[in-house]
Write a structure and sequence with these properties.
- By secondary structure, this protein is of the alpha+beta class.
- It has a 7-stranded antiparallel sheet with strand order 26-25-24-23-29-28-27, with helices on one face. A 7-stranded antiparallel sheet has the order 42-41-40-39-45-44-43, with helices on one face. It has a 5-stranded antiparallel sheet with strand order 3-2-6-5-4.
- Strand 8 and strand 9 form a beta hairpin.
- The protein is elongated and about 145 Å long.
- About 21% of the residues have low confidence.
Length: 1941
């Protein structure tokens, strides 16, 4: 029974006391005056009566009612029902107020002005029961009695209210005495009346049991719930959902459960209370245990900034003050919104629960939704009544909790039964069985306070049960089956709702309320109302005393609580992992695990070893791990299993692998089952010393997790307590029925039984049981102290391993490194002392372990009720246990060091190159897999990595050699190596190996040869050795000087010292290199006017030195003689020899080939030769990075050069490097201009200059120089005759029509593409037109004159088009683009011919440098500004490319895929840019304009462009000799900075590796792919160069310029070192030597066409990633050092011979892409045949001839044969079989420059039929023969007009036929002038030529014999000549060309 009301309070406005101008409330009267013992009076009620503050108002407000909730210090909730009404104040009271307000009159004038004010007064009932309606009625009645002046005294009514006693629960079925019988109350008239009213008659007896009356003619029924454990919600939950919606309430629900702060806002106080009540109701069975204030007064708003979670309601009036709360979720009940701050993350219910809950809720709240789309919806679709709906919603949440907590009772550990049950929840096991360890929501709920309360309340096994217990025990199966079917769920929900409703309304029919309300009149009349009277406290107190006395005299009503055993429900089955790890649990895998363990215990070690990798993989799955623990358990006898060393090691490895994947929670209980096993398995080390497995499995985070130990401890205690009671019960049980087979009783059932019996036991028995239980717990605590010391103390306690990263220092800490100390604790060295403890004494380890164990013992003993004496005993015991264990471990550690090490794979020695020496011998390491999938077996095939072996450091390479860890491929050898010089990044990593060894440290080494080595040092490698390895590596990678590189030190001792200076045989060369700079000055002074001798010109004083030379005014003619003298007389003998060496250099050989002038005839040279070889730079004084001999225009004196070079960066002035053989246009190269020279360089010549300054004169010199270049071009001299402007323009009027206009659109378009768009921002050049169609340019224009036929020959690719022009100066490039532009001086536009003409010289310059330059329309040169990629871009791009091709670790992120990373690297974009500019230059040269490439410093991009242009334009450079010459000339002689860009020395280390040359090779590779038949060398040749460009094996690519090479004496050294013929110093010699031996570099498809100009496609879509970046050969390392290959092959043959014991050998060989060298294992057919031929010749004892001779012979014989058979030529017959026959050779491209769009049609003309139908509206472009249009006679053996009959029903038409014997075909055109070929008849297809007969529609007036037929394999052609003789001629010609073929 409980009081309905504890206190009644009257609270009024305090007129006397106002704080800071705010009104206060005060308690006017309170009943009873004295506090009840069981329920003290709550403080601060006056604040809660007016939560918005006490204020006087000018108008009377309607009475209000709400319930506030106060929580006292014992967490008891008090419900304060506040009824507030307003009373007028009389005059004296008003004066008081006025006086108080006088000082504040300014602030609040409104208050003072009103004549009448109203003050609030509140009647408050304080109760511990929540009966809102009853309180509303009672307080309303009291107010009515007062207002209407009813005769009943207020004291009586209040007295009755305070003495009402009602049952707490159980409905009203309990027999009670009448509540308000007042027979003993002192008689007074009113009381008499009351008594008379109240005496109940017998028929009302039943009703009175649940009816109360306050004695004012009122009567109301209070229905108490049947079970008070279930919350009472009325309709508050349904209201909450109506106000906020399903999703919002679910957010609030999850937020409340996961302990977030929740704030409700509403303008209604009652709604706030209801909302809070509703939220708490849906949380059942969890109870909210944090701050709960449904109505918070405004004065207490600072409570909202509390750090703890809360549920609080606040009036919307205070909304602004809640705005700055950053971590509070605000629910606005009036607006229906829930605002979640950004910093708050609410974990939601796990799917599919969330979805199912939402569906169920919407079916309750909005049943129409389901049928809203139906044509005939059901009739009655209204949702249930609000009260019913409320219960349905709660039922959904009950159902939800039943699903969330199903099976929770199986995870309860009962650790004490007597005197009180103590229960703990095993969270990890619960989450593990539910497979929800990753679920954020459930983790937080289980960790929360509410769940802790849930466990303590519902954990006890013997108690009263409620609806939830029943649901979770008996309906789990039903819920599981129905969860997918919403309608079945709804039925279940409705059943639950019915029970909830019944509990709240046990008698729904009885609803008799008879309560008077105030009459209308009393409410309306204001003046007559009297204030609420002061009550008579004595009268009220009498009522109370009387009731108390009565209660004392009557017998106590005891409700018999029905206790029973709480059912546990079905145990949790293994809910399948939602990630569906079926593989991990397959029976086959378990079989493997079982077999392996059996092999180990049967001592079949070899078998076990083979299975080991598979077992370790299988142990990733949970079931396999469980299986392992079960199997191991079977091999433990009497808690001990002694193993030998190898068995022990295998078992430990498996245990480590199993533990490795256990989380620190150990949710699957794997660590728990292994715990007894690690103390069971052991091995004998020596006399009486045993090592247990625990010393080798300590490195797992689970052992340092306090929760794990607690769960383990409680589980063990439960088992022991269960055993304790099972014994006592067994005795009794056996006597009763020995035969019955009982199922095993769970611990909770046992405990419930014991709790039931407890009251029946005697005191002694009870005490005995309590003691037994305590001693059980105590003994387990000792046992666990031991266990913990086993697993926490390291084997070598002298080293402070202590949980380096984790530790005992922190309970929650987690360590994640695993180790097996199976090898004698050798790990110890790697542990440093940085463990977070001050000193590394051994005692420190002990101390921290003791601290950890003490903390554990304190916690578990306090929870399980161990007495203090026992606890103290434990604390004294623990240090001794630890110390004892340390002593044992010391002996074990000592002995284990003596163990022989585990058998490890033998270290394999690598084969070394001649001259390569070891710097550090092999260190045992593991090669770890990186981000490439191939070797790890993920792409199929066995995993070759990880591999175990050794790393060797030699003078040249870093080599790993070893064998795969996987036993299935153990016999393979894995080699990974790269040259030290190519190392780009080295970083330390720490590696965890999956197998067994924890590796101290590792290194990740990245090389620019696209190799990555992740190595982990074995534990036997001391850390100082690893450090010394790093230092040596660094020293070798960055030597002090370039002479320290391998190319120079090769063959000398491996010490890193520079060679001592010795006398050299070639003294003259050394003399040159030493005295070069000194002599330079002297020689030059002597050469001119004898000047005083000076110190050598250094870089600093070079300019003054040149300015002196500038003063010499020497005529051109003298200059020529001087240069002639230079060679013969002025140089001394030693220098003369040098000059002859210079002449032999690549440049000179090439200049002679190109006819650019020779040195020999310099005296007799005719003046007509446009260029000469200047020796001005022979001493490298003009430009240090240029070669000694340079080509300059004939009439430029050397003195001018000295002046010009100063305008250019690095003095690299423009020099000629190539001349077009046909157009005689020249290609020049230079650096960009110095910034100061730019503007003056482009100054308009007519600009008035006042004083000719120094800059102007230089500018004039420059102009002269450029003019000299232009005038040296034949096209220029042809067109002008004299170099005058008038001549220039007039002749151009005639020729512009023919030659220039012809190519206008093509170049114009090219320019547009290269330059980008006018609107483009500078910098968009590279991306100009990704999405646009290619603008393609027509190569075949109509013939205009004979001269114009000289159209460009060559193959067309295309340039990436963009129909846009770039943002450069509009004048620049206008002539090219064919655009009009106003004249710079503002005059009228130029006449047409001037605008349309082509410039003679185009300067490709850097856009950034050319700003502000003016273009003159009369100059004959023009600048094309382009954006170039600078070196930094190339460097960064290359870094990204390396990471894309060789990632360091595997990733599944979509934005880290290979293609995405490749795109991000922008490498392809850079290639595209370089190729695009090169193609433009090729095109310009081909049209007869010269081009000067003048970019950056002239040694990076310039070199790339110039080299590519020559390669594309000149077939000679596509041969072996030509390519070598090209690289030597453009890259080596013209000073590309190889050492600096390759970061080859310590000095250039900071600049980083920038592979400009590699980029060039990649461009060549792209061209090679597109034109495979044009190159004599193969792709392998390019890869070979790329590899050795970075390897530093040869000296070729080492220094920065010829000057540096001469200084070191390496420029003119002999071909190879005679002392060591094996060592090649030049890569070219090496290639020559190799090429003579074997066809490794030769391209069998090579069949070039004369004068072929290549025009590759440059779109990014046409570029391919070079396989050089992606290939790997793990069998024997990179395939670019051939000596290694031959040595390895010979070794392999020897071993094969030894091993050949006559057993049959398989002919099959499995080829692995990343392992085998494919070209070696699967050579192409021709190589294979050549090899076979050589082998056969060797067998026959013949001297085998060189492969090249054999190949040439075969080619010639094949040619003659095919001629006889009249088949196509050899090259095509050989290639027809390959799909490359028509890859690019025959692609005709139609390139139309149309305004609207552009059309492309590629025709493969070798297969195009002659009757290709033209595209409508466009000329047919299917078979253009643009590349063969030329005037040379052999291309047109016979031509003329023939009539040809069309296809069926088509007329005869005259066509111009051309018989081409060279191309072996008959072509026909519309007319003679037409360049569009209409069809081709392949002569190879012609079967016969016969005389024909005229047919229908044949030409009239033609004799019959003029007809002849041409029959091909495809069709019959009917032809007709003009006369018979002509026809005969045609037939004979065709016949003869057939026989010639």
């Amino acid at each position: 029974m409980a009081r309905l009301a504890d206190y009644f309070v009257v609270v009024g406005y305090d007129l006397d006391n106002r704080v800071e101008g705010e009104g206060q409330g005060r308690i006017l009267q309170r009943f009873p005056e004295k506090d009840w013992e069981d329920s003290p009076f709550p403080q601060g009620i006056e604040l809660f009566c007016q939560p918005s503050g006490w204020q006087l108002v000018p108008e009377r407000q309607p009475a209000s009612f709400f319930v506030a909730v106060l929580t006292d210090i014992n967490s008891e909730r008090h419900y304060c029902a506040c009824f507030t009404f307003w009373e007028g104040l009389d005059s004296p009271q008003l004066k008081k107020v006025d006086a108080g307000d006088a000082d504040e009159a300014d602030e609040e004038p409104a208050v003072v002005q009103h004549s009448k004010l109203f003050a609030p007064k509140s009647l408050v009932v304080v109760s511990r029961l929540d009966y809102t309606e009853a309180f509303r009625n009672c307080l309303g009645l009291i107010y009515t009695v007062h207002v209407d002046g009813l005769s009943t005294p207020l004291e009586t009514v209040i007295g009755n209210l305070l003495t009402c006693v009602i049952p707490v629960a159980g409905g009203s079925q309990i027999d009670e005495s009448p509540v308000c019988s007042l027979d003993k109350v002192p008689q007074s008239p009113a009381c008499d009346w009351l008594l008379a009213c109240l005496q109940p008659g017998p028929e009302e007896r039943e009703n009175s049991l649940r009816t109360i009356t306050l004695g004012a003619g009122d009567r109301q029924v209070i229905q108490t719930p049947i079970n008070d454990a279930l919350p009472v919600s009325g309709s508050s939950v349904a209201q909450l959902f109506r106000q906020l919606g399903i999703v919002n309430v679910l957010y609030l629900f999850c937020a409340a459960l996961t302990e977030h702060k929740i704030l409700f806002l509403s303008s209604s106080y009652q709604r706030l209370t209801d909302a809070c009540r509703g939220l708490l109701a849906i949380m059942f069975p969890l109870k909210y245990s944090f701050t709960y204030v449904p109505i918070l007064p405004g004065k207490l708003l600072e409570v909202l900034s509390t750090p703890t979670p809360f549920i609080i309601g606040v009036n919307s009036f205070f909304r602004s003050e809640t705005q700055e709360l950053l971590d509070v979720i605000i629910a606005d009940l009036d607006g229906g919104t829930v605002t979640i701050p950004e910093c708050v993350h609410i974990s939601l219910l796990p799917e599919p629960l969330l979805q199912q809950t939402q569906t169920a809720l919407s079916m309750v709240l909005d049943p129409e939704l389901e049928f809203s789309d139906q044509a005939f919806p059901p009739q009655s679709m209204n949702p249930s009544a609000l009260k019913i709906q409320d219960k349905e919603i709660r039922a959904v949440f009950l159902w939800l909790f039943a699903r969330l907590f199903q099976g929770y009772r199986w995870c309860l550990h009962i650790i004490r039964i007597h005197p009180e049950p103590v229960i703990r929840f095993h969270k990890a096991a619960f989450l593990g069985q539910r497979s929800l360890t990753e679920d954020d929501f459930l983790m937080k709920v289980l960790d929360g306070m509410a769940f802790a309360g849930f466990v303590s309340e519902r954990g006890p096994p013997y108690r009263a049960t409620d609806l939830f217990d029943d649901l979770v025990a008996n309906h789990v199966e039903r819920i599981r089956q129905e969860e997918a079917c919403p309608h079945k769920v709804m039925n279940h929900v409705k059943e639950l709702a019915e029970q909830l409703f019944k509990n709240e309304n046990p008698y729904p029919a009885v609803a008799m309320h008879k309560v008077q309300r105030p009459s209308e009149t009393s409410q309306s009349t204001d003046q007559s109302r009297t204030p609420f009277p002061v009550l008579d406290d004595v009268a009220v107190q009498l009522f109370i005393d009387h009731a108390v006395a009565k209660l004392k005299s009557s017998p106590p009503v005891v409700k018999a609580e029905l206790k029973s055993m709480v059912p546990s429900g079905p145990p949790l089955g293994d809910i399948v992992d939602r990630n569906g790890n079926v593989m991990a649990n397959s029976a086959r895998r378990l079989e493997v695990v079982r077999n392996c363990i059996t092999y180990i215990f049967d001592n079949k070690m070899l078998e076990a070893k083979k299975l080991m990798p598979a077992v370790l993989r299988a142990l990733k799955g949970r079931t396999a791990r469980v299986c392992l623990t079960q199997e191991l358990n079977q091999h433990v006898l009497q808690n001990r299993a002694v193993l030998d060393d190898q068995q022990f090691d295998y078992i430990v490895r498996m245990m480590n692998c199993t533990l490795q994947d256990c989380s620190h929670m150990d949710e699957h209980g794997i660590a728990a089952t292994l715990l007894p096993l690690v103390t069971a398995f052991c091995r004998k080390l020596g006399a009486g010393i045993t090592q247990f497995a625990y010393s080798c499995v300590q490195e797992h985070m689970v052992w340092t997790t306090m929760q794990f130990w607690e769960a383990m401890f409680y589980s063990d205690v439960q088992n022991h307590i269960k055993a304790l009671y099972m014994e006592t019960d067994d005795g009794n049980q056996d006597q009763q029925d020995g035969s019955s087979n009982r199922r095993e009783i769970s611990a909770l059932e046992l405990a419930a039984e014991q709790n039931r019996l407890w009251p029946t036991l005697s005191k002694e028995m009870q005490m005995e049981r309590v003691q037994k239980e305590e001693s059980t717990v105590f003994s387990q605590a000792i046992h666990y102290a031991n266990r913990m010391s086993y697993l926490l103390l390291p084997l070598d306690t002298s080293k402070n391993r202590l949980l380096r990263s984790s530790g005992l220092g922190d309970v929650e800490s987690v360590s994640n490194s695993y180790v097996t100390n199976s090898i004698a604790g050798s790990m110890a060295e790697s542990y440093d002392t940085e463990s977070g403890f001050e000193d590394a004494e051994s005692s420190d380890v002990a101390n921290s372990v003791v601290r950890f164990i003490n903390r554990f013992v304190d916690k578990v003993c306090n929870e399980s009720g161990v007495t203090n004496e026992h606890l103290k005993a434990l604390h004294t015991m623990i240090p001794d246990i630890v110390q004892m264990h340390i002593e044992t471990l010391d002996a074990v550690h000592r002995e284990s060091k003596r163990l022989p090490p585990i058998q490890k794979p033998k270290l394999l020695r690598p084969t070394l190159l001649p001259g390569e020496e070891l710097v550090m011998d092999g260190m045992r390491v593991h090669l770890i897999p990186d981000g490439r999938d191939e070797a790890t077996g993920q792409m199929g095939g066995p995993p070759l990595l990880p591999a175990e072996g050794a790393i060797f450091l030699t003078t040249y390479r870093l080599i790993f050699k070893g064998t795969p860890s996987d036993a299935l491929v153990g016999e393979q050898i894995v080699t990974r190596s790269f040259p030290i010089a190519s190392l780009t990044k080295e970083k330390r990593i720490s590696v965890t190996l999956t197998m067994d060894q924890f590796v101290q440290e590792g290194l990740q080494l990245r090389s620019c040869t696209f190799q990555l080595m992740k190595i982990a040092f074995d534990e036997e490698v001391a850390s100082d050795l690893a450090e010394s390895f790093r230092k040596h590596l660094h020293k070798l990678r960055f030597p002090q000087h370039v002479q320290g590189t391998f190319a120079f030190t090769v063959g000398q001792s491996g010490k890193l010292v520079l060679e001592p200076k010795t006398k050299d045989k070639n003294q003259s060369l050394k003399t040159l290199s030493k005295n070069l700079v000194k002599n330079a000055k002297r020689t030059i002074s002597r050469q001119y006017v004898g000047r005083k001798k000076e110190v050598p010109a250094t870089w600093e004083n070079r300019s003054n030195f040149q300015s002196e030379l500038d003063e010499d005014e020497i005529s051109v003619s003298e200059e020529v003689d001087q240069s002639a003298l230079t060679l013969s007389s002025t140089i001394r003998s030693s220098d003369r020899q040098t000059m002859s060496n210079v002449v032999e250099r690549a440049c000179c050989r090439d200049y002679q080939r190109l006819g650019l002038g020779t040195l020999s005839n310099s005296l007799t040279r005719s003046k007509n030769e446009p260029f000469r070889i200047s020796t001005a730079n022979r001493m490298y004084t003009v430009c240090r990075s240029y070669p000694g001999l340079l080509i300059i225009p004939q009439n430029i004196p050397d003195s001018t050069i000295h002046r010009i070079c100063r305008c250019y960066r690095q003095n690299r002035f423009p020099v000629v490097c190539w001349r077009h053989s046909r157009t005689k246009a020249v290609l020049l190269r230079s650096a960009g201009l110095h910034a100061k020279g730019v503007v003056s360089f482009f100054k308009s010549p007519n600009a008035p200059t006042t004083v000719p300054s120094q800059a102007d004169s230089t500018s004039l010199e420059q102009e002269k120089y450029l003019q000299a270049i232009i005038s040296s071009m034949p096209s220029y001299s042809e067109s002008t005759g004299r170099n005058t402007l008038s001549g220039f323009t007039s002749t151009h009027m005639n020729t512009s029509e023919s030659s220039d206009k012809l190519r206008q659109p093509k170049i114009g378009d090219l320019m547009k593409q290269v330059l980008g768009n006018k609107e483009d921002v500078p910098g968009t050049f590279s991306r100009g037109a990704l999405g646009q169609k290619a603008k393609v340019i027509s190569l075949s224009q109509p013939k205009v004159s004979g001269k114009a036929r000289n159209s460009p020959r060559g193959k067309w690719g295309s340039i990436r088009g963009s129909g846009r022009l770039s943002a450069y100066n509009p004048d620049i490039g206008t002539r090219l683009a064919g655009k009009e532009s106003p004249q710079p001086n503002g005059g009228p536009n130029d006449p047409l011919f001037l605008r349309q003409q082509k410039a003679y010289l185009y300067i490709i310059g850097d856009k950034a440098q050319l700003k502000g330059g003016k273009q003159d329309s009369f100059q004959q040169w023009e600048v094309i500004p382009i954006e170039v990629c600078d070196v930094r871009q190339v460097k960064n791009s290359f870094k990204k490319l390396m990471k894309a091709c060789v990632p360091s670790s595997q990733t599944t992120e979509p934005n880290m895929s290979f293609l995405r990373l490749l795109e991000d690297s922008e490498w392809m974009t850079l290639l595209h840019r370089v190729l695009q500019v090169s193609v433009l230059v090729v095109e310009l040269l081909d049209t007869g304009s010269s081009v000067m490439v003048s970019l950056e410093d002239g040694w990076d991009v310039t070199t790339q462009v110039v080299s590519l242009v020559q390669l594309l334009s000149d077939p000679y450079y596509r041969t072996f000799d030509g390519f070598r010459l090209l690289v030597e000339k453009e890259w080596l002689s013209f000073g590309h900075r190889f050492s600096h860009r390759g970061a080859q020395t310590l000095g250039s280390q900071s600049s980083g590796f920038t592979p400009v040359f590699l980029q060039f090779l990649d461009c060549v590779h792209q061209i090679h792919l597109q034109f495979p038949m044009e190159f004599e060398f193969s792709q392998y040749y390019l890869k070979f160069l790329a590899y050795h460009y970075m390897s530093n094996r040869f000296r070729t690519f080492l220094l920065d310029s010829d000057y540096d090479r001469i200084e070191l004496g390496v420029l003119y050294e002999e071909k190879s070192d005679r002392r060591n013929p094996q060592v090649c110093k030049s890569v070219w010699d090496y290639i020559d030597r190799l090429n003579k031996k074997a066809p490794v570099f030769y391209n069998y498809m090579y069949s070039p066409e004369d004068e072929e100009v290549l025009r590759p496609y440059t779109f990014i879509s046409n570029l391919k990633v070079w396989d050089f970046y992606l290939e790997e050969t793990l069998s024997d390392g990179p395939p670019y050092d051939w000596e290694l290959r031959s040595r390895q092959e010979s070794l392999a043959e020897e071993t094969a011979e030894k091993a050949d014991t006559g057993a049959p050998k398989s002919q099959r060989h499995i080829v692995w892409p990343c392992y085998d060298n494919l070209s070696k294992v699967m050579p192409d057919a021709i190589t294979k045949l050549l090899q076979d031929l050589q082998n056969l010749e060797a067998e026959l004892g013949q001297t085998s001839e060189k492969w090249k001779d054999t190949w040439d012979k075969i080619k010639t014989t094949q040619r003659t044969e095919t001629k006889l058979e009249s088949k196509p030529s050899f090259s095509s017959s050989l290639l027809m079989s390959s799909n490359l026959s028509h890859q690019r050779r025959s692609q005709g491209v139609c390139l139309q420059d149309s305004r609207v769009g552009s059309s492309i049609k590629l025709g493969l003309d070798c297969e195009a039929s002659a009757t290709s139908t033209p595209v409508a509206g466009r000329p047919s472009t299917s078979t253009l023969y643009s590349q063969f249009q030329s005037t040379e006679s052999e291309n047109r053996s016979f031509e003329g007009i023939l009539y040809k009959r069309g296809a069926l029903l088509k007329p005869w038409k005259p066509r111009w036929f051309v018989l081409d014997k060279t191309k072996h075909e008959l072509r026909y055109y519309d007319s003679r002038q037409d360049k569009d070929c209409k069809g081709v008849i392949e002569l190879s297809d012609v079967e016969s030529v016969t005389v024909g007969t005229p047919t229908m529609g044949a030409p009239k007036n033609v004799e019959e014999k003029a007809f002849f037929d041409l029959k091909t394999s495809k069709r019959m052609y009917n032809l007709c000549a003009q006369e018979s003789s002509n026809a005969q001629l045609w037939m004979d010609s065709i016949q003869s060309s057939l026989s010639d073929a």
